[in-house]
Amino acid sequence: MDEALRNKILNLLDEHRIMSVATLRPDGWPQVTTVGYVHDGLTLYFLCGLDSQKARNLAHDNRVSLTIDHDTADLMAISGLSMAAHAEPVIDRDEAQKVLGLLAQAYPEQDTSKLEIEMPTPDDVRIFRVTPTVISVLDYSKGFGHTDLVEMGDG
Prior knowledge:
The chain has 155 residues and is of the alpha+beta class. It has a single domain (3-151), classed as Electron Transport, Fmn-binding Protein, Chain A (Pnp Oxidase, Chain A), CATH 2.30.110.10. 22% of the residues lie in helices and 40% in strands. Strands 1, 2, 3, 4, 5, 6, 7 and 8 form an eight-stranded antiparallel sheet that branches. It is globular and about 45 Å long. The chain starts with a helix and ends with a strand. The relative contact order is 0.20.
C-alpha cells in the first residue's frame, strides 16, 4: 500500500470513534452492532460485555466485517472505510491496559471522574483486537462511488 493511501486510512481512523461491526451468529445469520473503537496503526480494538452476543459470536467464528463513516450533506464528500478482518480476544493484561488507556485518550472532552459508572477494567469486559485482511477506502471526492482496495492478507 502506498504512503498516501495508508495516511488516508489512518486519518479516517483518527477522525472517528465508532464503527458498525458485523459478526456471525452460530446459525449463520449476521449481527451488526455499533461499538466504540480505538486503534494503534491499522490494528483496531473494541470492547464488549463478557457474555455479550458479540463475544459469543466471535468465540464461534472470529471473522468480522466493519464500516467506519459519517453522514455528510455533500454527496461528493462521502468517505469511509469498510474492512474484512479477524477479531481475537486480548489476553495479555498489559495490552488490555494499553487499550483502555487509548479509550480514555479518545474522549479528551470526557471527565471520567464525573461518570455515573466506573471505567471498566480488563476483568470487566472482553477486549478484541481487530486485524484487517481487506480494507476498502471509499472516497467520492475521486469520483462517484470511488474505492481503493487494499489486501492485507488473511492473517
